[in-house]
């Protein structure tokens, strides 16, 4: 059943997208409601599973990690076998994003590892267990990853906000206390700082200072809600592009950045060169967007592959430090 949002709910979601750590009082002033009304609406959005949590977008490169994307097509499986594969990957400390799809691939897995040897060990262990169920597997290295707000959800025609970006950056030194802070904070970004501080034997003020320093160093890049847009009637698609020319990528990325429906755009090393994640109302809207991209960049794009993402099993920006 598709759920409907009124304008006040959309405004609240927009403020949470901008910074999910804003207090109810801060949000109330911006959306024209009382603090109690904002609290009620946020709790209702959580109860309705429209908001499924809050997370910190971390700069993986600055944490010293490489991003690999593994794309899998199944063979000779059933529901129980696929559930077992998904459960195994969910538990892996290397897996940050895991989704089920329809199209050329049935499963997409994003991993964050320290080096290619760690990824190879992860992949070999996985294939030893489940290789007989894998018809096709493709691996991409994510060279750049750009994350944008869900501008379309708020009726915006263009995404004018600065995108969140990682790639081609030097590793930043993270001490043990900072790492523990990220562990407690990254997958529950709206939790009380005092609650986190108590677990680390710090004051709330000291914890707030630590978070601000991590933001200043561009390690914590954004603080966002996990919005279940499927319940709002939107489809999630991952598009993979092969290029025939490579001297126009900045112009292509400029288009991607400002499109209200594109929430991620990436540069790959491997069998594909660029990719986008976008959310649309239906197949017709997807077709219109892809046709627009092809028309604008026909001299650059050779071909593309489209995958429908229908279930997200895991989203976490914090890899395993022990890699």
Tell me what the structure shows:
The chain has about 325 residues and is α+β, with helices and mostly antiparallel strands. Helices cover about 35% and strands about 30% of the residues. It contains ten helices and eleven strands. It has helices spanning about 5-20, 25-30, 35-45, 80-90, 115-130, 175-185, 195-200, 205-215, 250-260, 285-295, and strands at about 50-60, 65-75, 95-105, 105-115, 135-145, 165, 220-225, 235-245, 260-270, 275-280, 300-315. The chain has an eight-stranded antiparallel barrel with strand order 2-4-3-11-8-10-9-5, surrounded by four helices. Strands 1-7 form a two-stranded antiparallel ribbon. Helix 1 packs across helix 2 (about 25-30) and helix 7 crosses helix 8. The longest helix is centred in the middle third of the chain and has 15 residues, at about 115-130. It starts with 6 loop residues before the first helix and ends in an 8-residue tail after the last strand. The model has no long low-confidence stretch (mean pLDDT about 95).
Which characteristics define this entry?
two-stranded antiparallel ribbon; single chain; 10 helices; globular; 323 residues; 8-stranded antiparallel beta barrel; alpha+beta
Largest sheet: 8 strands, antiparallel, barrel
Helix content: 25-40%
Beta-strand content: 25-35%
* Overall strand count: 11
Shape: globular
How confident is the prediction overall: mean pLDDT? 94
Helix and strand content put the structural class at alpha+beta
Q: List unreliable stretches of 5+ residues.
A: none
Radius of gyration: 20 Å
């Amino acid at each position: 059943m598709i759920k409907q949002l009124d304008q006040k709910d959309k405004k609240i979601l927009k403020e949470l997208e901008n910074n999910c750590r804003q207090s109810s009082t801060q949000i109330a002033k911006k959306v024209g409601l009382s603090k109690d009304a904002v609290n009620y609406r946020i709790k209702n959005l959580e109860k309705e599973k429209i908001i499924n949590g809050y997370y910190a977008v971390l700069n993986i490169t600055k944490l010293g990690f490489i991003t690999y994307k593994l794309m899998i097509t199944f063979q000779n499986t059933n529901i129980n076998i696929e559930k077992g594969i998904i459960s195994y990957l969910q538990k892996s400390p290397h897996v940050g994003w895991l989704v089920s799809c329809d199209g050329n691939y049935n499963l997409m897995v994003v991993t964050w590892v320290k080096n290619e040897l760690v990824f190879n060990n992860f992949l070999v262990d996985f294939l030893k267990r489940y290789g007989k169920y894998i018809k096709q597997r493709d691996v991409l290295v994510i060279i750049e990853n750009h994350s944008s707000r869900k501008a379309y959800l708020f009726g915006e025609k263009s995404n004018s906000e600065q995108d969140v970006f990682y790639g081609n950056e030097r590793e930043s030194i993270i001490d043990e206390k900072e790492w523990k802070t990220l562990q407690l904070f990254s997958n529950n970004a709206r939790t009380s700082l005092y609650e986190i501080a108590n677990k680390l034997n710090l004051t709330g003020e000291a914890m707030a200072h630590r978070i601000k320093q991590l933001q200043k160093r561009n390690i914590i890049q954004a603080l966002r809600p996990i919005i279940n847009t499927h319940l709002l009637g939107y489809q999630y698609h991952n598009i993979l592009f092969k290029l025939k020319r490579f001297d126009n990528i900045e112009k292509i990325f400029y288009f991607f950045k400002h499109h209200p429906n594109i929430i991620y755009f990436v540069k790959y090393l491997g069998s594909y060169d660029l990719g986008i994640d976008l959310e649309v109302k239906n197949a017709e809207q997807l077709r219109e967007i892809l046709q627009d991209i092809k028309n604008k960049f026909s001299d650059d794009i050779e071909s593309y592959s489209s995958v429908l993402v229908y279930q997200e099993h895991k989203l976490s920006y914090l890899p395993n430090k022990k890699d």
